[in-house]
Amino acid sequence: MMEELSYHILDIVQNSFTAGASNVRLEIIDSDKDDTLSIIVEDDGKGMSEREVKIAQDPFYTTKKGKRVGLGIPLLKECCEMCEGKFEIISEKGKGTIIKAVFKKSHIDRPPLGNIKDTILTLIVGAEKTDIDFTYKADDKIFNLNTKEIKKQIGDIPINNPDVINFIKEYLNENLENE
Ligand SMILES: Nc1ncnc2c1ncn2[C@@H]1O[C@H](COP(=O)(O)OP(=O)(O)OP(=O)(O)O)[C@@H](O)[C@H]1O
Ligand SMILES: [Mg+2]
Questions:
Q1: How many folded domains does the chain comprise?
Q2: CA-CA 20 to 30 A from 141: which of 94, 113, 127, 174?
Q3: 108 burial class (0-12, 13-18, 19+ CB within 10 angstroms)?
Q4: Residue minimizing CA distance to atom 4 of ligand 1
């Protein structure tokens, strides 16, 4: 069991990169009102057929060469279900994939979100060709960071330029807390 949800997020978004996505939308909805913590990852990558969706959730299957099992999806699914949550994959071959993981927020086994700020930074730096649209919603707040918008503002400067990274880091620090 991975002890922080941010590790799961890293894995699920990296799957989108591997699937050749140009755009990934990551949404975290943290609701005390509903007692749920939801993670939604939507991409425009290569997508999966119905059969591929089924086997992706099987802990003994992977398409990666030289590896016997792919565990990213099965681990997140298992973790969700242990926490009275729901796990869902909606995917269409050639179109993209939506992965939804909902946890009962107050469940004793729910892992903390963990270091979400570093996770977002890691994903932004690691995404050479993929734009990330990240939204964090709580009952009384909404925060958005969209690499497309950042790229528009920085023009010719690459997004992994150290000054840009520092700017993003500060922006995240001002607006988010690690759980
Ligand atoms: N966003 C996605 N778009 C298209 N296919 C996907 C996506 N996410 C997962 N898959 C498919 O589902 C399989 C299982 O994913 P999973 O993350 O569980 O394992 P993995 O990525 O193969 O290995 P690991 O995450 O353990 O390194 C992948 O190998 C890939 O074929
Ligand atoms: Mg994976």
A1: 1
A2: 127
A3: exposed
A4: 47
Q: Which CATH number covers residue 55?
A: 3.30.565.10
Q: Is 169 inside any structural domain? A: no
Q: Whose CA is nearest to atom 9 of ligand 1?
A: 15
Ligand 1 center–CA 24 separation, angstroms? 15
Question: 57: CA distance to ligand 1 center in Å?
Answer: 9
Q: Which residues pair with 123 in a beta bridge?
A: none
Q: Is residue 139 part of a domain?
A: yes
Q: What pLDDT, on a 0 to 100 scale, did the predictor assign at position 72?
A: 87
- Is residue 21 in a domain? yes
Does residue 63 surpass a pLDDT of 90? no
Phi-psi bin for 94: left (phi > 0), alpha (psi -120 to 50), beta? left
DSSP H or E segment with residue 133: strand 131-138
pTM greater than the 0.85 cutoff = yes
Q: Which pLDDT band holds residue 17 (cuts at 50, 70, 90)?
A: very high
Q: What is the mean pLDDT of residues 111-139?
A: 94
Q: Which domain holds residue 44?
A: 5-144
Place 6 in a pLDDT band, splitting at 50, 70 and 90. very high
> What's the gap in Å between 73 CA and the centre of ligand 2?
7
| Tokens 């005390």 belong to residue | 32
- Is the CB of 15 within 6 Å of ligand 1? yes
